[in-house]
Each structure stands twice: as structure tokens, then as C-alpha cells.
Amino acid sequence: QVQLVESGGGLVRAGGSQRLSCAASGSFFNINSMGWFRQAPGGKQRELVAAIRSSGSTNYADSVKGRFTISRDNAKNTVWLQMNNLKPEDTAVYYCHAVIVGDDLQSQYVTWGQGTQVTVSS
Question: Of 98, 83, 75, 72, which Cα lies nearest the Cα of 20?
Fold first, then answer.
């Protein structure tokens, strides 16, 4: 069983910065991709914010390009999301996401963190 433990988040003013971290623990062979999704209030769909593969390649939602940076330490199974120039529309619950390769080297599955609230005040 793999666990993703998130930290960071909270209340920040518009224009400010926050850093989220997510560490994976448990038994697995490798993590293909790690990233962050978010779900805004009002029943909106969960959306991809940023993701990074074990190779280091990244992709970002258009709405955060140039403001957010995702990084990863493969040895520590940890991913970070540095969020700069935050806007009120970035307010959401942010969920860590990982694509896990099981110990059998064949199985692959997705696991999620518990979510952390980011609130940006105007």
C-alpha cells in the first residue's frame, strides 16, 4: 500500500507564494509520474495543475504556466509545487497524484493524497 503525504497550503494573499510538498511511502518498484491536481469550490471538476515524470519532463495547465514550478527528487520519492504570483482563482483543494509501478514490475496504478487547501485572498 502506497501513501502520499502532503504538506503546505493555507491562506495567502494574491501575489504571494506557497510551496506544496508530497512524499510517497510504502512498497513499490518505481513512480512513473507525480503531480498535482486541484478542485475548486462549487463542485468544479478536478483538473491537472502540473505533472513530472521520472525522466524530469513536465507539463502544466495553461492557467499556471510561468507562475508554478513542479520539481521532484526521485531518490526521496518527493514532489514539490512552487506556486508564485498566486491569484484568487487558484483557490482550491490541491491533491497529490502518483502513478505507481508495483513490486511485480508489471502492475501500475494511481494513488492520491488526502488533499490540502490553498486559499488566495484578493
Answer: 83
In Å, what is the CA distance from 98 to each residue of 5, 12, 16, 66, 76?
11, 26, 27, 23, 14
The pLDDT of residue 114 is 96
Cell numbers 495547465 correspond to what residue?
61
Three-class secondary structure of residue 87 per DSSP: coil
Asked if 122 and 12 count as a contact pair (C-beta separation under 8 A), the reply is no
**CB contact at 8 A, 51 and 58:** yes
The amino acid occupying position 16 is: G
Report pLDDT digits (tens) over 89-99: 999 999 999 99
Dihedral pair phi/psi, residue 35, rounded to 5°:
-175, -170
Q: How many helices and strands in the chain, by DSSP H and E?
A: 0, 11
Question: What are 33's three cell numbers?
Answer: 509520474
pLDDT of 43: 84
